[in-house]
Amino acid sequence: MATIEDVAKLTGLSRTTVSRVINNHPYVSEEKRKLVLEAMEKLGYVPNSSARSLRNQKTSILALFIPRITNPFFSELVEATEIAAAEYGYQLIICQTRYSPEKELNYMNLLKTKQVDGVILASIQNEWKKLKPFLQYGPIVLCNEFDDRANVPTVRLDQVYGGYIATKHLLEQGHTKIAYCSGGYRSNVAKSREIGFKKALAEYKVSFHEQYAFRDAFHIADGKRVFQKMMALSERPTAVFTGSDEVAAGIISEALRCGYRIPEHLAVVGFDNQAITELTNPTITTVHQPVKQMAQKAVDIIVEKIQTKRYDVQEIYEFPLQLIVRASTVGSELHKSEA
Amino acid sequence: MATIEDVAKLTGLSRTTVSRVINNHPYVSEEKRKLVLEAMEKLGYVPNSSARSLRNQKTSILALFIPRITNPFFSELVEATEIAAAEYGYQLIICQTRYSPEKELNYMNLLKTKQVDGVILASIQNEWKKLKPFLQYGPIVLCNEFDDRANVPTVRLDQVYGGYIATKHLLEQGHTKIAYCSGGYRSNVAKSREIGFKKALAEYKVSFHEQYAFRDAFHIADGKRVFQKMMALSERPTAVFTGSDEVAAGIISEALRCGYRIPEHLAVVGFDNQAITELTNPTITTVHQPVKQMAQKAVDIIVEKIQTKRYDVQEIYEFPLQLIVRASTVGSELHKSEA
DNA sequence: TATGGATATGAAAACGATTTCATTCGTTTC
DNA sequence: GAAACGAATGAAATCGTTTTCATATCCATA
Q1: CB contact under 8 A, B278 and A78
Q2: Would you say A242 and A217 are in contact if contact means Cβ atoms under 8 Å apart?
Q3: What would the DSSP string read from start to end of B108-158?
Q4: Which of the nucleotides in strand C have any atom less than 7 Å away from a protein CB atom?
Q5: Mean pLDDT, to the nearest integer, of B12-19?
Q6: Secondary structure element (H or E) that encloses residue B35, with its range
Q7: E strand or H helix at A72, and its extent?
Q8: 3-state secondary structure of A289
């Protein structure tokens, strides 16, 4: 493996000059520059990343924390983040916490050991006070997930509004027995949506019963399970708000299999605007999240923080959500889309 | 940021001894070991990864090349690979080539610059002779995708067999007008499936017409498009083999929307056994791929190659595929599952 | 009582880059 | 014609580890 020393020797110049050529520093004569470039080509030389990282105190790698990559929402987030990071010359290390606080804490050592220049948290499994100490080692940016106590830049979506518009839509269709379905108790995203959900109910003077709440639904299978539970209730809901399109699709699938009709017997709202929403029959009313913009902003911010080295500033960037009305809530009426 | 030097100073020992404690070398007295551990704790010391990488000539990072993470098959592959890599203490860098040969070549520089210890290619966009020169910098392992000319370890699935069993299943149902639908011309995975497809046809003395071939279908939308194309043919196929469940789902969705019935008017076979196969109505007959086993094996192999430093050996590890029969091919009969 | 082997420790070199500082040579400028 | 400055180059320090080599002590064995 050729090193900068080899290039220097071959050209009869010093390491310094070779380094200058590599880094496009001024004050290198055209003659020597050519000489160096030729030698580099001839030796197949390429600078060693570890040596550069050590000397420059920067790895050009970012860590992105997500619960699971197989969740389509997070796939989309990873795709967008990787593309945005690449524009800045950063690589992305994927950290799947699988909802485990220990795994999350463990991955945090990537920052401590300087294996990454910064961490984007799209999922939080620990209390903030456990995460906070890592701030001394590098920037942390919250993306999608958030925590009011976290004194770091946060890029998020207005989840309260998301829960609100989806629920309001169901109320406008005349529903009063509306079930609530979300993924996880810990997530502030889910909590915010629930606030929006209840806000809409309150506006319409509709009361909420705790037996209509299902807070452990993540996947298609969970949706199927939840549907069965709802149908086992003495007073069945006529509509359901869900925290993901997969869960919504599971509910719809199970309902159809059992001979129910959507939305006549049960109106269903999803979340995320994934591809499956256009696949099922009926198609799924959902809430669109501007994932690309959010990812781009998170990367912009973290790159800036890496440069300025001020990590403990709470700046909040919020993007709006949008209701997409499809067939799972409005029957055979003409489908309309509203902001 | 505390360094090993700081720990040495605080304890009054040398860097060497501190390093020995960190690396669990023998020949450190219990007394000094405790002293060092206390000092490390007190200073919040943690070894710097870049320095270690430089000195040890190893980064403990692997690169995984995939076309797009939003493709559920690759999400699953990434999840499994990340978990397997973590067991060995490796981090995973995700490289999305987005089907671009240039991007792929560009990401290959991660190996050349020693930013990663090895590369797992689950997607190949360039001819092997373009990739081959990178072998001098570190190990490359093929996983899922493959190339006969590639003199490297290859972990793959028997795609010829996969195409064969899926097609044979359709032939057994009495179909003779069977369309073929795949993603990409370049991929050897797709080519192999086509070989298996044609092999089955030949066994049943059924001829294949090129107008039944659609080789550019990746997503749900492509499936919808392909369905329309098939229906525009003068002689419509009665069954279709597809290279992914998303495409199959797209075809089914569009067919139902247009008033056709599945499988009566069109039998559909998918590939990958994704979650959506149990979601659609009818559920989708598909081919299950043992992704986890494949990913685990690929990681095992690359870790071994990193240690032994012998990269240019063609070893092939092949895993079997399995047909999962569901409703999209067998009508209202009882669903059965066969190996 | 030498001799040799285990145990314990440290000084210094090495990994491969970048940067600081010094030096030299021209060219202006007053 | 001296001073000042810009351009071009290199020697050596530096980043933070690990490892090699040397040294010292202790204990058992011949």
Answers
A1: no
A2: yes
A3: HHHHHTTSSSEEEES---S-HHHHGGGGGGS-EEEESS--TT--S-EEEE-
A4: 7-20
A5: 96
A6: helix B30-43
A7: helix A72-87
A8: coil
Residue A1's pLDDT band (boundaries 50, 70, 90)?
Answer: confident
Strand partners, B272: B288
User: Pick from A94, A115, A281: which is nearest to B94 by CB?
Assistant: A94
Instruction: Please state the pTM of the whole predicted model.
Output: 0.94
pLDDT for A140? 98
Query: Residue A331 pLDDT more than 90?
Result: no
Q: What is the pLDDT of residues B255-310, one digit of tens each?
A: 999 999 999 999 999 999 999 999 998 999 999 999 999 999 999 999 999 999 99
Domains of chain B: 4-47 (1.10.260.40), 59-157+291-320 (3.40.50.2300), 159-289 (3.40.50.2300)
> What gap in Å lies between CA A112 and CA A121, rounded to an integer?
15
Percentage of chain A exceeding pLDDT 70: 98
Please report, as a single letter, which amino acid is at residue A306.
Answer: I
SS3 B221: helix
By Cβ distance, the residue of A70, A79, A94 closest to B92 is: A94
Per-residue pLDDT reduced to its tens digit, A158-190: 999 999 999 999 999 999 999 999 988 889 999
B144 to chain A, minimum CA–CA distance in Å?
Answer: 18
Beta-carbon separation of B115 and A49 below 8 A: yes
Q: A301-316: per-residue pLDDT in tens?
A: 999 999 999 999 999 9
What average pLDDT does the structure give for chain A? 95
Is a pLDDT exceeding 70 seen at residue A339? no
CA B336 to C1' C22, in angstroms, rounded, equals 83
Q: Using CA atoms, how far apart are residues A328 and A255, in angstroms rounded to an integer?
A: 12
* Protein CA at B14 to nucleotide C1' at D30, angstroms: 37
- The string of pLDDT tens digits covering residues B200-218 is 999 999 999 999 999 999 9
Q: Which two tokens stand for residue A151?
A: 């004194």
Q: What is the mean pLDDT of residues A275-286?
A: 93
User: In this structure, is the CB of residue B58 within 7 Å of any atom belonging to strand C?
Assistant: no
Q: Decide if pLDDT at A334 tops 80.
A: no
DSSP track, A157-186: E-HHHHHHHHHHHHHHTT---EEEE-B-SS
For residue B314, the one-letter residue type is Q
Task: Provide, in whole angstroms, the distance separating residue A193's CA from nucleotide C28's C1'.
Answer: 72
Chain B residues touching A281 at Cβ < 8 A: 253, 256-257, 281
> Closest Cα of chain B to A328: distance in Å?
15
**What's the pLDDT tens digit per position in A57-71?**
999 999 999 999 999
- The alpha carbon of residue B30 is apart from the nearest alpha carbon of chain A, in Å, by 26
- What residues in B contact A53, CB-CB < 8 Å? 49-50, 53-54
Q: Which H/E stretch holds residue B240?
A: strand B239-242
Contact B220 A275 (CB under 8 A): yes
Angle at which helix A4-11 crosses helix A30-43, to 10 degrees, equals 120
Residue whose CA lies closest to nucleotide D11 C1': A14
CA of A18 to C1' of C29 (A): 34
Distance from residue B29's CA to nucleotide C11's C1', rounded to whole Å: 20
A146 is written with which tokens? 């958030």
Q: How close B33 gets to chain A, by Cα (Å)? A: 21
Could you tell me whether strands B213-214 and B154-157 are parallel, antiparallel, or unpaired per DSSP bridges? Answer: unpaired
